[in-house]
Amino acid sequence: MKNEGVSTFKVAATYIGTIVGAGFATGQEMLQFFSRFGLTGLFGLVVTTILFIVFGYIIMHLGKSLNAGSHLEIIKYSGGKIIGTVIDWIITFFLFGALTAMIAGTGALFEQQFQISGLVGNIIMTVLTALTVLTGINGVINSISFVVPFLLASVMGISIFAIFKTPPDLTTTRVVIEESGLITNWLLSAILYVSYNTVLSIAVLGPLGVKANSKKALRNGAIIGGLGLGLGSIMIYFAISGNLSEIAKLEVPMIYIAGRISFAIQIIYAIVLIAEIYTTAVGSLFGFTARFVDMKQKPKKGRMIVIVVSLVAFFASQFGFSNLVKYLYPMVGYGGIVLLVCLVYSLFRSKHQKTAS
Fold first, then answer.
1. What's phi and psi for 212, nearest 5 deg?
2. Are 218 and 61 in contact (CB under 8 A)?
């Protein structure tokens, strides 16, 4: 049987799907990182779009060059033994944290939208994620790339409806919400946003680079993926900006906004949210598992890790969704800045070595 590589479309869709999860599509990330800064928050989103393209390409390029089976090879190459080890543990910790946040986000959604115990949502997402990851990297890529086009179209549609129904007010320079104190300005916010998302996505993007058809597919996939993430973020930013006073205290702001359009749209978006949360949960659990074991070589050990980690994340998710976004994400973002610097350095180093040889 012919071994086909991953196409540009699947590269872009997997990149988007790994990042577009509970924090993104619920509106919590836009609220905590950008909308509260008013117009300057929009400048931050332009910066993040460019950085997503750059770092998405760097990670996949290094993954392909190093034939990486997990993020570990890329990290050790980029940061060396000492810094690489520190970054490795930051990434591993956040992969678990992101999985926990996705499970918590599902529970928050079930409570706010369906008036069903959050525990039911937690259990459903835990089981679905674990079953998908047990199928391996191909199952992860296929599941994410299948869901993503529908997800992005839904986010765009809801945001456009919301913008026309309640035009955004960008004259407000800053909106007071309950803050963590970890984010003080729009530029720092943009860097931290890209930083923690890079920490999250590297676990999937590294091995994805190995499977890509060509370096052209990597480059174009990174560009399309980065632009898709940027456009989606900006649309949610505008939608939230017109409803800030109403949604500042909500766990799932975009559900409220969808409800202002119609109840049917609200239900559809709730289903979309669950699918988006699922894609990031799958990427996080796969990346965490791949860090410790090759599931092809040691399937029994891999299955055990998937099951145990899923159960621990389920219990940790009871901490609450908005709290995880508010405190965990910025903290990991600060640690991830070291990763961004190392990735840029390693790219220049590899190009210099090629030139020298």
1. -65, 150
2. yes
User: Which option is the CATH number for 8-347: 2.80.10.50, 1.10.4160.10, 1.10.10.650, 2.60.120.600?
Assistant: 1.10.4160.10
> What pTM was computed for the model?
0.79
Residue from 9, 41, 85, 1 nearest 233 by CA: 41
DSSP code of 35?
A: G
- Could you tell me where the DSSP H helices lie in 115-249? 118-133, 137-165, 186-211, 215-241, 244-247
Which has the closest alpha carbon to 329: 187, 207, 191?
Answer: 191
Return the bridge partners of 6, or none. Answer: 212
How far is residue 166 from each of residues 40, 82, 267, 313, measured CA to CA in Å?
A: 20, 51, 20, 38
3-state DSSP assignment of residue 264: helix
The Cα 217–Cα 352 span in angstroms is 23
In the chain, % of residues over pLDDT 90: 16
Question: Which residue type sits at 219?
Answer: R
The mean pLDDT value for 38-65 works out to 91
Q: Where are the domains of the chain?
A: 8-347
